[in-house]
């Protein structure tokens, strides 16, 4: 007879190497909710069908179970002698001890919103949710509404009743998602589309921009720009394999394509363009991209450009940036420029840019003055915390000796 196997005794609890990491779990109990609208047309014809007899809605599914609304025009309870109408929610599929919350609403059809609501939701229940033991179990009201009152109320209109029902089936489950997490990497769709642009795989259109060519994809451009979509798929020119653009710089078109594919701009290029020695805002890459965004209805690109130009607003540049905003329908940027110009009116009027406005955009001058009036109202309501813009203007004299408030 073989010797019995001998197993080593369990390690002492003092041995730290034998300890297991603690585990945990979490049970979450909540309701799965669903609603159904039941319209009862021809109420007067349903009357007289008999006490205890009902009209049923279509079955509807909530929480994996089938449900139905039962309407008793002559009442469910014989003792009430048809004095009341009855409404119930019934479990219409197989189920045992199904726990649920319910809400029944008789709709006010006058538009006053005075609905008759019986609800388990949003209130404490002494015995918890209602339990339906088996198929055919019901919850509701034998005396839902007195019939004589119902027939003269706003709940009945054109011989029609409307009943809304909400069922919340109680379910319990072990919740994993809140105890463990899987890190989702940042989206790389921009990098993938950018690679598509760089390697030119599947390109089906070539842009010739002042002699420089760019291979692209009609579907990508059409998805991003309604102008390209119309050009490619709604006009006779859509079959062209090469499109010539002679009124845009290649660097601007390249930056626009970069944004279309990657949904971002090369920040270094924008910073470099804004730090050039050329004082004209019209010649910056950002301004030219704003024009391209307006031309091709690239709303997000336009907003990005507006945001960058907003940071460049100063006494000397605000007039030019305002003219750009007006020309390319940049409404948010225009509002910021008008406000800044109004708050620093005296200094702005002495700038070279203001002379440009006088000669080329006279209508913007009147808009500035209208904004001034609004600023004056703000100053008055603010208890005189900021200096009146009209006081700035009436100062005359040189503005170099005082600090000008610059808000962006």
TrEMBL record:
Annotated Polar residues bias: 12-28
Organism: Oldenlandia corymbosa var. corymbosa
Keywords, sorted A to Z: Ubl conjugation pathway
Family label: Belongs to the Tdpoz family.
InterPro entries: BACK_BPM_SPOP (IPR056423), BPM1-6 (IPR045005), BPM_C (IPR034090), BTB/POZ_dom (IPR000210), MATH/TRAF_dom (IPR002083), SKP1/BTB/POZ_sf (IPR011333), TRAF-like (IPR008974)
A Gene Ontology BP annotation from the UniProt entry: cellular response to water deprivation
Superkingdom of origin organism: Eukaryota
Pathway: Protein modification; protein ubiquitination
Biological role: May act as a substrate-specific adapter of an E3 ubiquitin-protein ligase complex (CUL3-RBX1-BTB) which mediates the ubiquitination and subsequent proteasomal degradation of target proteins.
Lineage: Eukaryota, Viridiplantae, Streptophyta, Embryophyta, Tracheophyta
One Pfam family per UniProt: MATH_2
CDD domains linked to this entry: BACK_AtBPM-like, BTB_POZ_BPM_plant, MATH
Record field: compositional bias (Pro residues): 1-11
Domain BTB: 203-269
Protein name as annotated: OLC1v1005094C2
Keyword Iron-sulfur: no
Domain (MATH): residue spans on this chain: 33-167
SMART domains from the UniProt entry: BTB (SM00225), MATH (SM00061)
Region spans: Disordered: 1-28
């Amino acid at each position: 007879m073989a010797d019995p196997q001998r197993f080593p005794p369990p390690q002492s609890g003092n041995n730290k190497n034998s300890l297991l990491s603690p585990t945990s779990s979490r049970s979450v109990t909540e309701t799965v909710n669903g609603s159904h609208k039941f319209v009862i047309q021809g109420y007067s014809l349903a009357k007289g069908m008999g006490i205890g007899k009902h009209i049923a809605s279509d079955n509807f599914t909530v929480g994996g179970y089938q449900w139905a609304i039962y309407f008793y025009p002559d009442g469910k309870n014989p003792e009430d002698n048809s004095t009341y109408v009855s409404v119930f929610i019934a479990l219409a599929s197989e189920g045992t001890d199904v726990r649920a919350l319910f809400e029944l609403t008789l709709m006010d059809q006058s538009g006053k919103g005075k609905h008759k609501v019986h609800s388990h939701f949003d209130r404490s229940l002494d015995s918890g949710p209602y339990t339906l033991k088996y198929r055919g179990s019901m919850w509701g009201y034998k005396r839902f509404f007195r019939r004589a009152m119902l027939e003269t109320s706003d709940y009945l209109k054109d011989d029609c009743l409307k009943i809304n029902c909400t069922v919340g089936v109680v379910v319990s489950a072990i919740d994993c998602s809140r105890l463990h997490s899987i890190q989702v990497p940042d989206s790389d769709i921009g990098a993938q589309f950018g690679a598509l642009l760089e390697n030119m795989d599947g390109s089906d259109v070539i842009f010739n921009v002042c002699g420089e060519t760019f291979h692209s994809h009609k579907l990508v451009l059409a998805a991003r720009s309604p102008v390209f979509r119309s050009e490619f798929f709604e006009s006779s020119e859509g079959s062209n394999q090469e499109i010539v653009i002679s009124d845009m710089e290649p660097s601007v078109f390249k930056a626009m394509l970069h944004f279309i594919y990657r949904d971002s701009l090369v920040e270094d290029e924008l910073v470099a363009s804004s730090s050039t020695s050329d004082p004209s805002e019209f010649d910056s890459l950002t301004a030219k991209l704003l024009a391209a965004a307006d031309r091709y209805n690239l709303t997000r690109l336009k907003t990005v450009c507006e945001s960058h130009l907003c940071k460049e607003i100063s006494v000397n540049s605000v007039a030019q940036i305002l003219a750009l905003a007006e020309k390319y329908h940049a409404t948010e940027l225009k509002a910021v420029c008008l406000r800044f110009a109004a708050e620093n009116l005296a200094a702005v009027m002495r700038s070279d840019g203001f002379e440009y406005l006088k000669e080329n955009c006279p209508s913007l001058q009147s808009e500035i003055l209208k904004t001034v009036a609004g600023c004056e109202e703000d100053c008055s309501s603010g208890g005189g915390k900021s200096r009146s813009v009209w006081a700035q203007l009436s100062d005359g004299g040189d503005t170099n000796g005082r600090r000008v408030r610059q808000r962006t």
